[in-house]
Amino acid sequence: MRKSFRTLMIGVSAVALGFAGSAVGTAGPERAADLPSDVVSAMQRDLGLTAGQAARRAAQQDDADRLDDVLKGRLGTAFGGAWFDADSGKLAVAVTDAARAGEVRAAGARAHVVRHSESDLEKIKKDLDSLAGRAEDDGSRTKPGRAPSDAVKGLTSWSVDPRTNAVTVVALAGKSEKAVAGLKKYGDAVKVEYTDVEPSTTAFLDGGDVLYYGAFGGGYCSAGFNVRNVSNGLRYVLTAGHCGPAGTAVYGYTGAQIGTVQSAFFPTYDDALVRVTNTGAWTQGPWVDVNPSQGGVVTVSGYSDSPVGTAICKSGVTTKLTCGVITAKRQTVTYTGGQTVYDLTRHSACVERGDSGGSNYRNSGTRTAEGVTSGAQLYLVNGQYRCGQAVGQPNVSWYYPAAISLPYYQSVYGVTLW
């Protein structure tokens, strides 16, 4: 039944329920999430988990995500960041005041006493963002950025890393000496790593469920999540902003036009809304296509902004369903060509060209939208750009957070997840 139904829909989407008012619980071996078989298989393949471990981890992550919000508000300036610790199945919380470590443990989390608060590390990140040209944002997305300073030339990304209690900066080997030297003033609050590969956006290659831009059979990306305005009945698809500018016609895999790009932002941000005008040809709903070549779907309910260490899965045109772990939050990334995007979430699922705009979601008792695929570090293998695992390297990929996109588009277009 799903296969025949699958031919009617764009293929990726979500519903709106959210986490407001959720109580913090305790996840243990006695509680496990009910995961679809496609998702379990992908988590076994990509994360090395058994089926039972995948189900228990999904439930543990759900509780950790809720506890993260509680403790961040409770600890205030003593909060040093948090991440999901897969070994213990608990949230790990960094705290600058040793006297408050017991408070963290009493709430059900693991405590780590650190030197730097999250707010102090965020100030360093803000300094680097400003050097990269980021404008102060009033929420309207209308303020233009500035040209980047030479002080960040050769730096490809940076973000606050709660696990090392530092701002981790990734620099291009042999092309960033001046910028790296300028970071020494921050002392141990900045950690530098090196790479030989520049990040790149992942648009325009083959796939299963696709959004063709400009003409059927032309350049394409992946759809992200279905959204709608329940007041006026207008329908949209949330996807990546770099795939095509506002006004571009968009077509689906059947050749029928879906609609046009209503609004698109890139660089600085990387999200877009496609307005679905051909509603007779396309049926939308609260679904994510987890295997575009076969038509399996899962329902996604609400959105989340999960901590580092959380396992997520992504679906896209090229690499289909893959899973990984969040490795950084609110990361600033400069792509090949010099376009800088802020606030990206980095993860370790395989992503390749054509996956751009595709859905990234967290598995818990329900699936929650995390964001739309933006880019990855890709390697040239036999004439094709492949994710890290193709050359024995870690996968490095990014998505633009739903927690940023959805509130903005709700304020402007009145949309919510399906």
From the alpha-carbon coordinates, what is the Rg to the nearest angstrom?
21 Å
Instruction: Characterize the main sheet.
Output: 8 strands, antiparallel
How far apart are the termini?
Answer: 21 Å
Portion of residues in beta strands equals 25-35%
- The counted number of beta strands is 25
Structural class: alpha+beta
Overall pLDDT metric: 88
Shape call: globular
**How do the strands of the widest beta sheet line up side by side?**
9-8-12-13-14-11-10-25
Contiguous low-pLDDT stretches (5 residues minimum) are 1-29, 203-208
Q: What is the helix content?
A: 10-25%
Q: What's the helix count?
A: 7
Q: Would you mind describing this structure in some detail?
A:
19% of the residues lie in helices and 34% in strands. Strands 9-8-12-13-14-11-10-25 form an 8-stranded antiparallel sheet, with helices on one face. The chain has helices spanning 2-6, 37-47, 51-75, 101-106, 118-131, 177-181, 402-413, and strands at residues 79-85, 90-95, 110-113, 155-161, 166-172, 190-195, 199-201, 211-213, 220-221, 225-228, 235-239, 249-251, 257-265, 271-276, 287-291, 296-303, 311-316, 320-334, 340-347, 359-363, 367-377, 379-381, 384-386, 397-401, 416-417. By secondary structure, it is an alpha+beta fold.
